[in-house]
Amino acid sequence: MALSDIADGLCVTTEQRDRGVACSDETDRTLAERLTEYEAALPSSATEAATVVDAYAGGSAIDAAGHEAGVAPMEAAKVLHLLGLDGVSPLAPQGRRIVRDWLDARVSRADARALTGAGETEFALAAFVESHDPLSGAEDVVTGALSRSGNAAVHKRDALAETMRGADDFF
Question: Higher pLDDT residue, 117 or 153?
């Protein structure tokens, strides 16, 4: 069987999504200055939120990022979620579905907590994450600011460099 026989009858049914023209924001405003437009919807000031984001992007855990900004760890987690950063929910996908069921009144709170195995604080944070969408446009502001100050993944990679192996270590 030739490749042409395998491909016979195949056709493309979807089109590539046009993403438009890429733009670059070359403003000199700090992250804190750029977050002021979202400050009313955040549980902390724009300056505290920027400090939380910078610490978290630099490799700090959520609680450490909160302490660095002078806010409670729960507040730091809420800020990160509202600004569109991933990895804030303390529950796995199944636990998140159970919390959504509780929010939709399909299961009692006591049953939801028992099924998730979450403590009071974890359950409260998971409920916040499931009931609040990230702020529209905030993720772009944060991503743009972090890309100008250096990629967050690069910061984490550099912080963990001595724990990583090189390809020549396998020979």
Answer: 117
With CA atoms as reference, report the closest residue to 142 among 56, 41, 75, 71.
56
Residues 129 and 93 in one domain: yes
Per-residue model confidence (pLDDT) at position 151: 46
Do 63 and 93 sit in the same domain of this protein? no
pLDDT at 9 over 80: no
Residue 116 has pLDDT above 70, yes or no: yes
- Quick one: which of 98, 114, 117 has its CA closest to 106? 98
Q: Write down the pLDDT at residue 10.
A: 74
Cα distances (Å, whole numbers) of residue 31 to 5, 75, 96, 126: 56, 18, 30, 26
Domain that holds residue 79: 43-84+148-158
End-to-end distance of the chain based on CA atoms, in angstroms?
A: 39
**How many structural domains is the chain composed of?**
2
Domain match, 53 and 76 both: yes
pTM of the model: 0.70
> Do 96 and 126 share a domain, yes or no?
yes
